[in-house]
Amino acid sequence: MKKNSKKQDSVIDNRNNEPVIVNDDDDEDTESLNSNVASKVRGKKRKLISKVWNYFEILDTKPGEELMCKCKKCGNKYSADSKNGTGNLNRHIQSCVKITTKDIGQFLLSSNQGSLLSRNPQFSQEKFRELLVQALIRHDLPFSFVEYEGIRDLLKYLEPKVSFFSRHTARTDVKKMHASLVSKVRNELSACPGRICLTSDCWSSIVTDGYISLTAHFIDSEWVLHKKILNFSYMPPPHNGVSLAEKIHTLVAYWGIDKKLLSLTLDNASANDSCVNILRSQLKLKDALVYDGSLFHIRCCAHILNLIVQEGLKKIDVSVDKVRECVKYIKGSQIRKDSFRKFIEQISLDDKKGLLQDVPTRWNSTYKMLSSALYYQLSF
């Protein structure tokens, strides 16, 4: 019969004043005897297998008397009744003056061996490979990362049994993981009980390559809102309404959600109006939209707000342009930036804030530029 209690750490000083950390498992040990020792406990013969019985021996008792045991080292007597567990015997072993530190260490090692094994699971090459591939994806690492000598030395130190793989294998594993996740997301979209809302936007890289994103927003059967980026795809020119509609329709059909759409949110670019009209016509032929598609086109509120603010900024264009040119001039040369920093130090301003340059398509960036310029006004 087991008696549960909380585990508690204690410290025992040995003769060299070196602390020995012990784990007091109190009553979680199973009361047991050595294979050659047996006693009657509540009328039943039981074998005691706990390690504490290496330090205690069962005393002979008469019928009806409480079962007792004594320490083999010091002779102290304790109850051996199963209902009391073995916590008191454990505590005595850790404090008995006639039991050496070496004996205690051996006892704790044998007692905790099973728990140590459970805390340190066996190394899995398959799991290691999966986690390493996930790291490549999450941190945008090159496939050749798995071949870096420094990384391999580190992993070999942590697990000598590890087997490495090449960048070509890493590439294959990434593709397999992508296929697995695509299947998982497709199942989630299929199981969605309601309609799905899409958002999409176009983006150009620093080398002017065009890309288009497609994100799905939906509520599952547990009423949990999900947002899944379905695609971030290369979008070749031209970026007109026909091309955008064809691209989005292809992506929607690929995910199998063309009959589950509620709306599509886009910015206010003129090409998007044409794109939505074409998509709406195609989906209406399949009777896939609610309210005859009147809810299908949603204009991006953030983009509308930006247009409103930019229109208002035109009233102070002259002042904003002067600030913008000043910021560009200072940030355009390291010598000018160093000189500006010296002026900032002379008037005891914080140089960590720094000058900020705005982006025309983000009204809040213009606000931050003006705010930083006002802060450093005396330095210009």
TrEMBL record:
<feature type="region of interest" description="Disordered">
    <location>
        <begin position="1"/>
        <end position="32"/>
    </location>
</feature>
<feature type="domain" description="BED-type">
    <location>
        <begin position="47"/>
        <end position="103"/>
    </location>
</feature>
<keyword id="KW-0479">Metal-binding</keyword>
<dbReference type="InterPro" id="IPR012337">
    <property type="entry name" value="RNaseH-like_sf"/>
</dbReference>
<dbReference type="Pfam" id="PF02892">
    <property type="entry name" value="zf-BED"/>
</dbReference>
<dbReference type="GO" id="GO:0008270">
    <property type="term" value="F:zinc ion binding"/>
</dbReference>
<keyword id="KW-0804">Transcription</keyword>
<protein>
    <submittedName>
        <fullName>Transcription factor/ chromatin remodeling BED-type(Zn) family</fullName>
    </submittedName>
</protein>
<keyword id="KW-0805">Transcription regulation</keyword>
<keyword id="KW-0863">Zinc-finger</keyword>
<dbReference type="InterPro" id="IPR003656">
    <property type="entry name" value="Znf_BED"/>
</dbReference>
<feature type="compositionally biased region" description="Basic and acidic residues">
    <location>
        <begin position="1"/>
        <end position="16"/>
    </location>
</feature>
<keyword id="KW-0862">Zinc</keyword>
<dbReference type="InterPro" id="IPR052035">
    <property type="entry name" value="ZnF_BED_domain_contain"/>
</dbReference>
<dbReference type="GO" id="GO:0003677">
    <property type="term" value="F:DNA binding"/>
</dbReference>
<dbReference type="InterPro" id="IPR036236">
    <property type="entry name" value="Znf_C2H2_sf"/>
</dbReference>
